[in-house]
C-alpha cells in the first residue's frame, strides 16, 4: 500500500489530495485541501506571475508539504496548468517552489491536461458519447468522446480568472460591458 499526495496548481486554486493506493486501480481519499491562490490573476497585461500571487502560492504549497509530511506520504505528484504554462517567469517560479518547498512541479501540456480532465470525468457517468466542458481559472477545455474514447479536444485561452481580469468592473455602463464581452467572444 502506497500513500501519495497529489497537488494540482491551477490558475485560481491549489489543491492537495492525499490518497492511499490499494492496487488494481483502487484508492481511498485520506485528506484533501483546496486554497484559493489566484495565481493567474493580472497576468493578461504582461504575461508574468505577480509577486504577491507567487508568495501566496508558495505559502500554500509549504502548508501542503507539511500536511503531506504529517500524513506520511511516500511521494508527492505536483502538476501545474494554464497560468504556469503561459507564464514568462515559469522557470524561476518552478525553481523557487523546488528550493523553498522541496516539491518538483510538472507543467502539463494542453493535451495532458485534457486527457486528465477526460479521465477524471468519464468514470463518474454512464453517457456513451458527448462533450466535457471544464472551465478552469486560466483556460477552458472542451473534450469530445465516443464509446468511452477521447477523440478530440480544444483548449480555449480563457477561464474564470482571466475573464474576470479582462472584464472587471471599471466603471462602464452594463451595456458597454456587455458590448465588450460580446466583442471578445466574436473575435
Name the descriptors.
2 domains, Ppx/GppA phosphatase N-terminal domain-containing protein, GppA/Ppx_hydrolase, 33% strand, 187 residues, ATPase_NBD, three-stranded antiparallel β-sheet, Nucleotidyltransferase, domain 5, Ppx_GppA_N
Any chance you could write out the topology, listing elements then pairs?
Layout: E1 2-9, E2 13-23, E3 26-36, H1 51-70, E4 75-80, H2 82-86, H3 90-101, E5 105-107, H4 110-122, E6 129-135, E7 140-146, E8 149-156, H5 160-166, H6 174-186
Parallel strand pairs: 1-4, 4-5
Antiparallel strand pairs: 1-2, 2-3, 6-7, 7-8
Helix pairs in contact: 1-3
Major β-sheet strand ordering: 3-2-1-4-5
Q: How many helices?
A: 6
Order of helices and strands: EEEHEHHEHEEEHH
Low-pLDDT runs of 5+ residues are none
What general form does the structure show? Answer: globular
Class from helix and strand fractions: alpha/beta
Instruction: Tell how many strands the DSSP assignment holds.
Output: 8
Q: Sketch the major β-sheet.
A: 5 strands, mixed
Number of domains: 2
Content of β-strand: 25-35%
CATH architecture of the largest domain: 2-Layer Sandwich
Pfam family, one: Ppx-GppA
Protein name: Ppx/GppA phosphatase N-terminal domain-containing protein
Organism: Candidatus Borkfalkia faecigallinarum
GO biological process, one term: regulation of transcription by RNA polymerase II
Descriptive report:
By secondary structure, the protein is α/β, with parallel strands linked by helices. It folds into 2 domains: 106 residues, 2-Layer Sandwich (Nucleotidyltransferase, domain 5), CATH 3.30.420.40; 77 residues, Exopolyphosphatase. Domain 2 (Nucleotidyltransferase, domain 5), CATH 3.30.420.150. Helix content is 37%, strand content 33%. It contains 6 helices and 8 strands, in the order E-E-E-H-E-H-H-E-H-E-E-E-H-H. The strands form 2 sheets. The protein has a 5-stranded mixed sheet with strand order 3-2-1-4-5. The chain has a 3-stranded antiparallel sheet with strand order 6-7-8, with helices on one face. Strand 1 and strand 2 form a beta hairpin. The longest helix has 20 residues. The model has no long low-confidence stretch (mean pLDDT 94).
Amino acid at each position: 500500500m502506497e500513500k501519495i499526495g497529489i497537488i494540482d496548481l491551477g490558475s485560481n486554486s491549489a489543491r492537495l489530495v492525499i490518497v492511499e493506493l490499494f492496487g488494481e486501480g483502487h484508492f481511498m481519499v485520506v485528506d484533501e485541501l483546496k486554497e484559493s491562490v489566484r495565481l493567474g490573476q493580472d497576468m493578461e497585461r504582461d504575461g508574468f506571475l505577480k509577486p504577491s500571487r507567487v508568495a501566496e502560492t508558495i505559502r500554500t504549497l509549504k502548508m501542503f508539504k507539511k500536511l503531506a509530511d504529517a500524513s506520511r506520504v511516500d511521494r508527492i505528484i505536483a502538476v501545474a496548468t494554464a497560468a504556469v504554462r503561459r507564464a514568462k517567469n515559469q522557470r524561476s517560479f518552478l525553481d523557487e517552489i523546488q528550493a523553498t518547498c522541496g516539491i518538483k512541479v510538472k507543467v502539463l501540456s494542453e493535451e495532458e491536461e485534457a486527457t486528465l480532465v477526460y479521465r477524471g470525468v468519464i468514470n463518474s457517468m454512464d453517457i456513451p458519447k458527448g462533450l466535457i466542458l471544464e472551465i478552469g481559472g486560466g483556460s477552458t477545455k472542451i473534450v469530445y468522446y465516443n464509446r468511452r474514447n477521447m477523440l478530440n479536444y480544444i483548449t480555449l485561452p480563457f477561464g474564470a480568472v482571466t475573464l474576470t481580469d479582462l472584464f472587471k468592473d471599471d466603471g462602464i455602463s452594463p451595456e458597454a460591458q456587455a458590448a465588450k464581452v460580446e466583442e471578445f467572444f466574436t473575435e
